[in-house]
Amino acid sequence: MFLRLAILVALCDSVLSDGYRGLAAMFTEEMYDKCWTEVYLSADRTGYITYHRNGQYPPYTECAVNYYTDSGYVISLEAFNLTAMPNDCSDYIFACNEKDFLCDTDSSSVHYCWRGVHYSHDVSWGQSITIRLFSDHSTQGVYSIEYRVEEAKTDGDTIVYIVVGVIAAVCVLVGIICKCCRNDDDDDIPAMNIPPVTTRSPNASTLRNARQFVPESERNSTEFISPPGLVYIPPAGYPSAPAQGNLQWYDLQQPIRAPLTPPVGLGREPPPPPYDEALQMPRKQPTTS
């Protein structure tokens, strides 16, 4: 029982000690005993700047401290906690991005005089900063400023970021221009009126004068049906009415020769018979050689 109690007390003492040291580390820099002096902050260090960790600053207090760090590092000020200061702007906190013990409204990077928590993330801090408290009020107050000492970004890194951003913007712009030009070219192309695919066929008059196909079982042995690939073309001088006999067949795939003119002195061929007589003329089946 006594042993367990001793172990519990030891653990509690360890936890309380660590907590106290952690709380003390949060307020790493006090200004009340360093006014108008320079204070070195080591690299990779974080903490708080306050006037006094154990109490308020006295009325009508004015104090300025310059903080600096190693070359290649910057002191970044982040959160300004002024919740325990007067709210009538009688007391000011000034922060200058250089060594300036007279840091005021005109020369400061940021300055606050009203209650609340304020952030200065948009300020590029440097290797040396100055914090100045100016109190013109009969009351007291408490403030804390969070700081961080970190490695400075080189100009080369900034140039790389700028170049990458410019290249990305150019690529996006070129893509937009190419897309717009492609759409304009498509609009300029006229509509293509492509005729439908058709097969070669005789004209309407030829079809009207062609004989209708009759199956072999139904037609007369004396009738002659056009062989495949041939169409009927009526002789010259015949009307366009359907003819029943004296048919002439021509192969459309073979060139048609012009009719020969009979020699002089041999006379001319007799004119074709009238339409009614031609219908009564006997039909002959063409002979094959």
Quickly list its features.
single chain, 289 residues, alpha+beta, five-stranded mixed beta sheet, 4 helices, rod-shaped
Short summary:
With 289 residues, the protein is of the alpha+beta class. It contains four helices and twelve strands.
What does this structure look like?
- The protein has 289 residues and is an alpha+beta fold.
- The strands form 3 sheets. The chain has a 5-stranded mixed sheet, with no helix packed on it.
- About 4% of the residues have low confidence.
N→C terminal distance? 138 Å
Strand order of the biggest β-sheet: 1-3-10-5-8
Helix content: 10-25%
Cα gyration radius (Å): 56 Å
List low-confidence stretches: 14-25
| Count of alpha/pi helices | 4
Q: Describe the biggest sheet?
A: 5 strands, mixed
> Strand tally, please?
12
The helix/strand series, from N terminus to C terminus, equals: HEEEEEEEEEEHHEEH
* Overall pLDDT score: 74
Strand content: 15-25%
In terms of topology, how is this protein built?
Elements: H1 2-26, E1 29-30, E2 37-40, E3 46-50, E4 62-68, E5 73-84, E6 91-96, E7 110-112, E8 117-119, E9 128-135, E10 142-151, H2 155-188, H3 204-209, E11 230-232, E12 249-251, H4 275-280
Parallel strand pairs: 1-3, 2-4
Antiparallel strand pairs: 3-10, 4-9, 5-8, 5-10, 6-7, 6-9, 11-12
